[in-house]
């Protein structure tokens, strides 16, 4: 999640001048190049023959939609606001993990995710700011991302991580190719460096997430996503000098506290087991 936060900060810089489609295309090229260098060209052939191709396409559609919603809103919201509101996702993941995956969620974990949800509501502050389109887009991204996380958990146990990454990025590459040509912006040296960095960092982040899903329940990992709040506030202040609204600080404190509660609860549960 630290790596995903680095990626988000770089993309927020890029979307000021470069369309999301072009960023997505370059990121996928870099990630796929890394996969071939790491596992050889055979990884591409094995991916095409994988039994989870159809499911990965469905998951990639969800992530693509989440991406477009999240980074479309990035032009209008501070990084801290984006990340805080987006953290409705862990609550949705917990609910879906019960309905779709049949996971049993302990009471303390429910307390944690519901506390996090209250934090998201406070950060949105709908009474004062209203549900503007950027906020609605971020909430939509959270729902779509949550659905994709549940699918990752189902797929992670059926296929190697490298194959999942290849399939994910082949879809993004194909989906972004035509829109990228239409919206093409010749990048400067700085922009090109940022896009390559997005690919390197994003690829490592994907690898970490897919591997993590092989070893822990989706509703457990959802709580650790809250750690990204620290980095969002830090990067927002260091890069843009952002000082979020008091409601965002208060909401983030509730969300981060929920994450700590999740960690403490899981450690206690594992000791009992």
Any idea what the radius of gyration is?
A: 18 Å
Unreliable spans: none
First and last CA, distance: 27 Å
Oligomer: single chain
Query: Main sheet, how many strands, which sense, barrel?
Result: none
Average pLDDT, all residues: 83
Number of helices: 14
Map the helices and strands:
Blueprint: H1 2-14, H2 20-39, H3 42-48, H4 53-73, H5 79-86, H6 89-99, H7 107-124, H8 126-129, H9 133-156, H10 161-182, H11 189-215, H12 218-224, H13 228-240, H14 246-272
Helix pairs in contact: 1-11, 1-13, 2-10, 2-11, 3-10, 4-9, 4-10, 5-7, 5-13, 6-9, 6-12, 7-14, 10-11
What does this structure look like?
The radius of gyration is 18 Å and the shape is globular. By secondary structure, the protein is mainly alpha-helical. It has helices at 2-14, 20-39, 42-48, 53-73, 79-86, 89-99, 107-124, 126-129, 133-156, 161-182, 189-215, 218-224, 228-240, 246-272. The protein contains 14 helices and no strands. α1 (2-14) runs antiparallel to α11, α2 (20-39) packs antiparallel against α10 and α5 packs antiparallel against α7. The model has no long low-confidence stretch (mean pLDDT 83).
How would you sum up this structure in a few lines?
With 273 residues, the protein is mainly alpha-helical. It has 14 helices and no strands. α4 packs antiparallel against α9 (133-156).
Task: Provide keyphrases for this structure.
273 residues; mainly alpha; 0% strand; globular
């Amino acid at each position: 999640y630290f790596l995903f936060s680095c990626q988000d900060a770089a993309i927020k810089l890029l979307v000021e001048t470069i369309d999301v489609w072009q960023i997505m295309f370059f990121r996928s090229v870099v990630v796929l190049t890394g996969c071939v260098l790491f596992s050889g060209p055979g990884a591409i052939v094995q991916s095409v023959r994988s039994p989870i191709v159809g499911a990965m396409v469905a998951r990639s559609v969800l992530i693509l939609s989440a991406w477009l919603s999240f980074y479309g809103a990035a032009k209008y919201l501070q990084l801290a606001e984006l990340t805080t509101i987006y953290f409705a996702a862990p609550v949705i993941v917990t609910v879906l993990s019960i309905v779709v995956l049949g996971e049993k969620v302990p009471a303390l974990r429910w307390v944690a995710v519901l506390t996090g949800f209250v934090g998201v509501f406070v950060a949105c502050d709908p009474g004062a700011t209203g549900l503007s389109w950027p906020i609605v887009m971020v909430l939509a991204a959270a729902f779509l991302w949550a659905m994709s996380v549940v699918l990752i958990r189902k797929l992670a146990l059926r296929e190697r991580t490298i194959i999942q990454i290849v399939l994910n990025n082949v879809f993004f590459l194909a989906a972004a190719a035509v829109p990228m040509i239409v919206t093409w912006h010749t990048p400067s040296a700085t922009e090109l460096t940022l896009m390559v960095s997005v690919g390197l960092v994003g690829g490592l982040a994907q690898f970490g997430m897919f591997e993590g899903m092989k070893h822990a329940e989706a509703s457990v990992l959802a709580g650790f996503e809250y750690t990204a709040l620290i980095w969002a506030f830090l990067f927002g202040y260091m890069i843009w000098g952002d000082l979020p609204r008091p409601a965002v600080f208060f909401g983030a404190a509730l969300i981060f506290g929920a994450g700590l509660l999740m960690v403490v609860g899981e450690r206690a549960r594992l000791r009992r087991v």
